[in-house]
Write a structure and sequence with these properties.
By secondary structure, the chain is mainly α. It has helices at 2-23, 30-42, 46-59, 66-79, 83-96, 100-116, 125-141, 148-175, 179-186, 206-212, 234-249. Helix 2 packs parallel to helix 4 (66-79) and helix 8 runs antiparallel to helix 9 (179-186).
């Protein structure tokens, strides 16, 4: 019994020691970290690949392997639909490693990552604006780029998404009896060259519309009491001003 206990403890110590050794790895050649990173990417373990990349970058900041490693991590996160992480690595690549010839492709990939991070445009107005700005910047910087038609298509779709979001906000103000707010957002439609009467709004998937509505209304609207909203409290102030005016006139 004692021998079995000792053997079990010894096995656990070996396992823990092996784990500790792996976690405490440091002062390795750049090629070692690069190979580990590529192997982790091949296995689909991007968390571990990020750690190996960090070791490569911190221990060998001047390594010639870093530019390629950075782009590998950017593309890997993009393929894994981790778009914000992909954008992070692309920004790092553009700032530190990209040559003038490579910069165009990296900036295109960054615009693509920002665009693809918007599966549900109604949820992030700020991200839509950032994506439009970056797309327009790319078009100004590389008007004859091979990627220009793709970026132009993405930016056009973002204009439409922005307009749809503004219309949703305007309809919300209509329901709150806020005509000035509704007018403000309806007048924000960008790009006069788009004929908005011919634009069909995107359809919300049925499984999302159950919980979120379709941007125009919700099936559970009848449950919500038809009462004054807190954001409409200035209407009471307006009514009070009218009462005060009537009293003065009397």
């Amino acid at each position: 019994m004692i021998k079995k206990t000792i053997a079990t403890l010894f096995t656990l110590l070996l396992l823990l020691g092996g784990c500790t050794k792996e976690l405490d790895e440091y002062n390795k050649p750049a090629a070692y970290w690069y190979e580990k990173m590529v192997a982790a990417v091949s296995d689909g373990n991007l968390d571990k690949a990020d750690n190996y990349y960090s070791s490569l970058q911190s221990e060998h900041i001047g390594s010639l392997l870093l530019p390629e490693a950075t782009m590998i991590m950017a593309i890997s996160h993009l393929q894994a639909e981790e778009y914000l992480l992909a954008e992070h690595f692309l920004t790092e690549y553009i700032k530190r490693y990209a040559t003038p010839a490579e910069r165009e492709y990296a900036e295109y990939m960054k615009v693509k990552a920002k665009y693809m991070a918007l599966p549900n445009p109604r949820r992030d107005q700020g991200l839509i604006n950032e994506a439009i700005t970056e797309g327009e910047t790319f078009m100004r910087r590389y008007p004859r780029s091979t990627y220009a038609p793709v970026v132009d298509t993405m930016v056009t779709r973002l204009y439409l998404a922005e307009a749809a979001l503004n219309e949703s906000i305007a309809e919300l103000y209509d329901r709150l009896d806020k005509p000035k707010g509704a007018t403000f957002y309806r007048e924000k439609k960008p790009q006069p060259w788009i004929d908005w009467n011919e634009v069909d709004p995107a359809q919300t998937a049925w499984y999302r519309s159950i919980f979120e509505g379709d941007g125009h209304g919700s099936w559970y609207a009848f449950i919500i009491p038809d009462t004054q909203s807190v954001v409409s409290r200035h209407r009471y102030d307006d009514a009070a001003d009218e009462n005060r005016t009537d009293m003065k006139e009397e």
